[in-house]
Structure formats: structure tokens, C-alpha cells
């Protein structure tokens, strides 16, 4: 009989804001682990976010990995040790990762980011 975890509880112990130097924009906006999807590959197909985990699952669901907090649809997969903590929802994930697409062409110091609005869309990826 195989054993699986039924749920995982995450406890935040070292938020990135306690470091002397902040993270780069790319380290969050282009990193599936940083946004809660876990280790894997992100792709966009027809305006929809897809995620392929690179880790073996430790749950009954083979599509969920140990480092994953949320699904691409924003469904939280873990429990948190504090009530105010949560994973990003689908809209937040898309907004965060959409900025990551722009970082492929633009420096994080580009004036584009100084005037960034919530509904800003890249002309190369207007469907996202």
C-alpha cells in the first residue's frame, strides 16, 4: 500500500522583505516557484496559464507537487499556519506573470514599469 500526504501546511519563516537586498523583478515575475506554482514550467496557450510540475507528486493527485501552493487557476492546495496567509488567485497569478513576459524585452528599470497599470498589455501578447 502506497502512502500519500492528504494535505500540507506551509509556515512562512523568512519573508523576502527581511533581506538586505531586494529580489530582482525576474526572480518573482518569471519564477513559478516564487508565485506558488512550484518547480516546473509555465506556458500560456490561447490566453490561459498552464503549469507542468517537474517534481514527483507526494499526494494522491499526480499533477500536484510538494513545492506547489496553488494551481494555475488559483485554487489553494495547502493549509497555512496563519489565517492572513494565502496563495495568489488566478487573476493575481496572471497579472504577476504577465509582467514577467515584458521583462524578456524590457529592463526592470525601463520607464514602462514606472507607468504600469493593472490592465497594461504587451503588444506582443495582447491576448494575455
TrEMBL record:
<dbReference type="InterPro" id="IPR036280">
    <property type="entry name" value="Multihaem_cyt_sf"/>
</dbReference>
<protein>
    <recommendedName>
        <fullName>Cytochrome C</fullName>
    </recommendedName>
</protein>
